[in-house]
Amino acid sequence: MKVLTSYSDGIDHCMASRYFSIAHLSKESGVLSMHSHRCYEFNFSISGERTFLIDDKNYRIDPGNLFMINSHEKHQVLQMDTTIPHERYVIFIDPSYLQSISTELTDLTYCFTHRPDKFSHRIALNQGQQRRFIYYINKLSAQEGFGQDVEERSVFAEFMVFVTKMAIDASLGDESQDQRQYFNSKVADIITYIHHNIDSPLSIGEIAAHFYLSSSYLCRLFKKGTGTTINSYITSRRIELAQTLLSGGYSVNEVYSMCGFNDYSNFFKAFTKKTGISPKKYAQNSLS
Q: At 178, is the pLDDT very low, low, confident or very high (cuts 50, 70, 90)?
């Protein structure tokens, strides 16, 4: 199987083939906003540290983390510090194909359908599990010649058994481990509040007052939960919204106020710093 180098190509190939696809990502450009797709998704981190938002949960991404995302869950990787490459493998799987290779005794859809209370989308793989995961990726990408299709399907079924066993073992872990695997609900509530009010002139004082917290405690809580400051997070979300609006045909003068910036100068500086190009140039490139 050819290993792709684009997230969107991986989704497209999976949906078109109604099979599975593999993408190896390390130098993707642009920002992918909160989204969902018809495919199941495994997201395995090799290097770099990021934050992963999945529905109302947010996780710190460390090397060796495997995330399991179903076709209904909205998700987004936040790349606050782009100086450290985020290398990862993403495997997209058509749900009907995965169902077709499951049996009454072996439900290979478990990773994507098992969502109990206190569920964590993340499994922290140990060194041995990481090596075995990469072994399967290499074996799948090396299949070619006579019998390729049969061998590929066989290796993929073996891979799914391996990952499903890890998911079952993780779900049987103690409650404290599950709790450590996703950040506390207060941080998730703060993030949701920011998302819903991103077009407003948000301030730390306003957010703190809304949650009956002191400003200093809010900042410490958010930094501990996400690895970034609350102001950096808000700015990043505003720029992501601006990119979406500019790509949709809105003018630069319309966009900056729609994204909660109080003046164009601040918007221009923040946008250029984040994307490397001016808002006007970005709009032209998106619409050309």
A: very low
Tens of pLDDT, residue by residue over 27-71, are 654 456 788 899 999 999 998 778 888 987 888 888 999 999 999
What is the spatial distance between Cα 259 and Cα 267, in angstroms, rounded to a whole number? 9
Structure tokens at 47: 């290097």
Angle in degrees, CA 82, 7, 254, rounded to 5: 65
**Rounded distance between C-alpha atoms, residue 49 and residue 60, angstroms:** 7
52 within 8 A of 43, measured Cβ to Cβ: yes
pTM, to two decimals: 0.64
Angle CA 117–196–226, to nearest 5: 60
- Average pLDDT of the chain is 86
CA atoms within 13 A on the CB side of 225: 22
The dihedral formed by the CA atoms of 236, 237, 242 and 245, expressed in degrees to the nearest 10: 150
